[in-house]
């Protein structure tokens, strides 16, 4: 569904992503792994069009993405939940969700009902300020906001970061439901190995901006974990 080929990316003179390939198969959940600073967030931002790339190709459902704006990539069916969630603390839950919808002069921004079926707490908290929600509720809000346009690929950057351990499991169940029951293809960055094992089908490990190992999650061996993932 998503094919990244030979991507090179620079921050100024710093070469961050090196000839990087990534395949995300339709209907599956792929986990992008690697230690801090290896380029995971940079890769997601490049896919979303939030950072320019120097060379390479990115295709979504066979269509070239690199010539498209970030807004256009979202409208083609890619939802993005950034690292740190980035909800607006002073806006209501409803306003935060509406921000995910494209602006239409001819009608009120209507939040689809399935969002509240997936996240009943967001309906309960609809008029509360985003900043008043707990960390887990904010993560649901951030995922809900990425889903209001009904994407076919959902990209999540460290969805469990800063979330209490008992809520991490809840976030995992939400991602599993989205992927296995609703059929969304998922690409996520995740550093917690047990969580990755629970939700993901495939892995791709980055090391210093290069893809160094890929495969099925069930086959991720101890040697790769020791070499590239443990700190
Ligand atoms: N805006 C920026 N300007 C310059 N260098 C940057 C910028 N953002 C990130 N970097 C550098 O790019 C490299 C990759 O960073 P990136 O955030 O993509 O890594 P990551 O794997 O997502 O790490 P983490 O798990 O800590 O979020 C790091 O060396 C980082 O210092």
From TrEMBL:
<protein>
    <submittedName>
        <fullName>Urea ABC transporter ATP-binding subunit UrtE</fullName>
    </submittedName>
</protein>
<feature type="domain" description="ABC transporter">
    <location>
        <begin position="2"/>
        <end position="231"/>
    </location>
</feature>
<dbReference type="InterPro" id="IPR017780">
    <property type="entry name" value="ABC_transptr_urea_ATP-bd_UrtE"/>
</dbReference>
<keyword id="KW-0813">Transport</keyword>
<keyword id="KW-0547">Nucleotide-binding</keyword>
<dbReference type="GO" id="GO:0016887">
    <property type="term" value="F:ATP hydrolysis activity"/>
</dbReference>
<keyword id="KW-0029">Amino-acid transport</keyword>
<dbReference type="InterPro" id="IPR003593">
    <property type="entry name" value="AAA+_ATPase"/>
</dbReference>
<dbReference type="InterPro" id="IPR027417">
    <property type="entry name" value="P-loop_NTPase"/>
</dbReference>
<comment type="similarity">
    <text>Belongs to the ABC transporter superfamily.</text>
</comment>
<dbReference type="InterPro" id="IPR052156">
    <property type="entry name" value="BCAA_Transport_ATP-bd_LivF"/>
</dbReference>
<dbReference type="GO" id="GO:0015807">
    <property type="term" value="P:L-amino acid transport"/>
</dbReference>
<dbReference type="GO" id="GO:0015658">
    <property type="term" value="F:branched-chain amino acid transmembrane transporter activity"/>
</dbReference>
<dbReference type="InterPro" id="IPR003439">
    <property type="entry name" value="ABC_transporter-like_ATP-bd"/>
</dbReference>
<keyword id="KW-0067">ATP-binding</keyword>
<dbReference type="Pfam" id="PF00005">
    <property type="entry name" value="ABC_tran"/>
</dbReference>
<dbReference type="GO" id="GO:0005524">
    <property type="term" value="F:ATP binding"/>
</dbReference>
